[in-house]
Please model this.
Amino acid sequence: MKKYLFIFVFLACALNAEIVTHTSTKIASGEGHGLTRAEAINNAIIEAVGKISGVNISSMKRSSTHAISDNSGSNIVDTYSNDISKATKGRADTYNIISAEQDGFGRWIAVVEIKNSKTTKSYKAPGLDHKQRRSLAVFNASYGDTRGLGENLKTHIISNLTKSRKFNILDRDNGGYYEMEKALIKSSNANSDEIYKLKNVLGSDYLMIFDIKAAQARTKQSNLTSKNITKAEVAVDYQVILFATREVKYSNTLTMSVSVKDDLKSNEAAFKKIADKITSDILNAIYPLKIANINGQEVVFTQNLSVGERFECFSQGKALKDSYTKQSTSYMRVETRAGQVEITRADPKLSYAKIIEGNMKEGYICRPLGGGSGPGYSEGRDANYQVNDGGGVKLGF
Model:
């Protein structure tokens, strides 16, 4: 005899709703044989429920057999429905008798269909689907006198990485506020559906850890204006670690000289310049900038970039294998220089660049040109600081 198992899944949700309701219905059929009609139906139910799984079949059989008191069709349906609920602990809702007939030898053959519906709710976070992006948490490993500077720098790094829209940037600093909000959600004052916002915290794919090894300022008088000019030399070590394996995926040291003044605005601008260089470096290592669209003599990038910044663009050819490991990845390709572009305007999500030279196409890889992205700092130099044995740091100037 044929045996059937059909599963239907229904998804019910309102457009843009935050609480999504999922309803799934399982339908299973079973065939049973017996000396009586009741026994055949009972065995058919046992087979069908067994397909759905998670039931105590012996208990099911005793309960159902004991419940039968007559051969009335309506009484049988009602009685068995109640018994199924007890035997399966609510895992089967209802059943229908498809057929119940006697064969030529007087034995009964029954076919039944059981239905089991389950409704669950989940919280749908607003905005872009986090599953489409990698998750990253930023940590300040600076200590001592540079700890406070590191916290300021961290704010700018997080801001830049968030604007890039390439990562889910995770907060690891405000646990106390989350506990307060969790207590409110669990209280009797909150709507019952608010509870589904809990247990949705993301774990990190990557850890971005930086350490300000040195920060030292010096003042000198300008020969042209006779005004005092203060410059700060900053050395920052940073790395990106894959959390699951603890592999260091990227590591670098940045040494920069930035102009500073006594006012807060100038100092914040200096921190932003340092953060811009670090985040640009990380993004280009993990997500090399790609041309998303060509509009005449203008190219479009899908992230916020600094106006005036120039990039050198390349077409990518054949994928290469490492001579020793024999591994081939999308990051190892033959590149051919295509030209140069300069950012002319930008908004929080897009940047536009004019083509300075060459012919551009969608998908070309673009990398920042050396020599800095503006006045007031330098980049591309080797680390020139030294940690003294007795403590402190000696910078290379």
Residues 1-15, 59-79, 86-90, 371-397 have pLDDT under 50 and may be disordered. The first strand starts at residue 5 and ends at 12.
